[in-house]
Amino acid sequence: MSQSAALPGPRIALPLLPGLLLCGAVAGAAALLALAQQALFGRAWLDALVLAILLGTGLRSLRPLPAATAPGIAFSARTLLEIAVMLLGASLSLTTLMAAGPWLPLGIAVVVGLSILCGYAIGRGLGLPRRMAVLVACGNSICGNSAIAAVAPVIGAQARDVTAAIAFTAVLGVGLVLALPLAAPLLGLNDLQYGTLAGLTVYAVPQVLAATAPVSALAVQMGTLVKLVRVLMLGPVVLGFSLLAGTRAGQRPGLARLVPWFILGFLGLALLRSLGLLPPVLLGPIATVTGALTLLAMAALGLGVDVRVVARAGLRVSLTVVLSLLLLGLAALGLIAVLPPG
Predict the structure, then answer these.
(1) According to the model, what pLDDT value does residue 258 have?
(2) Which residues in the chain come in under a pLDDT of 50?
């Protein structure tokens, strides 16, 4: 994918309109289905991002899409996704990392790094293409959908790779949220340790809350802290892949060309948030816009995927996700064992 993107002018935007409207319709349907789950069951078993991918893929599989929708779909899957990743930086504060003390962030960084390396090795060993293996490894190791979405533009991943990686990590993420509270008594962990385990293994912050709330408020607080520190690893990891991609290509461009614009924006917003220069009144609207753009991008990714291609990669991807997550869990338990007791 291109490392630079610009918002379209009025004349250029007209060809994008059919695809944007289609992505908006799919995203809206996904949001409504997620709300319906929440109303009926008390929680959304499949969040709107996953539903947008599933609905988009299903629509694409049922009938060919009009050619007029292609530009808008491509714009949503690339440029809108990059903008969403950039805005994600506003949700991160380095003060959280400093408040946790030196050993916990260092341990999390080591676990994330080892998990990415092992996950990539497992994926390649099972025959996954290089880019797919990177996406699965990063999704498992950091924050699921957001990590996959952030890494994809940097490594030039195709829509079908992104969709497959998100779909399988999302399904397993739901299972993990349900299984962890049941496994808590068997693991012999105190509430702080259990919160650490949940924060290190569960993909999204809302899922961490769901996995820790049945245990205790202390587990919720620790799980959320660990998860936020883990999410802070996203910037350095994406920057590292960007530098690696430039080195492999034999390029020696300046920083502005080597590092994607949206990653620079991500780091800039995180720095502004950490320095207290980002007005708190803006945080809510930024989070809303980020969520909406990400949902549109996921719908676009689904609309750009041939389900038969994903099905062919299914077994290998699912095995990679499961084995990588098991290794991540073992690494998390190892970190808990060496950290000072809570």
Answers:
(1) 45
(2) 1-5, 252-258
If DSSP states are collapsed to H, E and C, what string results for the chain? Answer: CCCCCCCCCHHHHHHHHHHHHHHHHHHHHHHHHHHHHHHHHCCCCCCHHHHHHHHHHHHHHHCCCCHHHHHHHHHHHHHHHHHHHHHHHHHCCHHHHHHCCCHHHHHHHHHHHHHHHHHHHHHHHCCCCHHHHHHHHHHHHHHCHHHHHHHHHHHCCCHHHHHHHHHHHHHHHHHHHHHHHHHHHHHCCCHHHHHHHHHHHCCCHHHHHHHHCCCCHHHHHHHHHHHHHHHCCHHHHHHHHHHHHHHHCCCCCCHHHHCCHHHHHHHHHHHHHHCCCCCHHHHHHHHHHHHHHHHHHHHHHHHCCCHHHHHHHHHHHHHHHHHHHHHHHHHHHHHHHHCCCC
- Amino acid 98: pLDDT: 63
Q: What is the pLDDT of residue 120?
A: 94
pLDDT at position 26: 96
Per-residue pLDDT, 237: 87
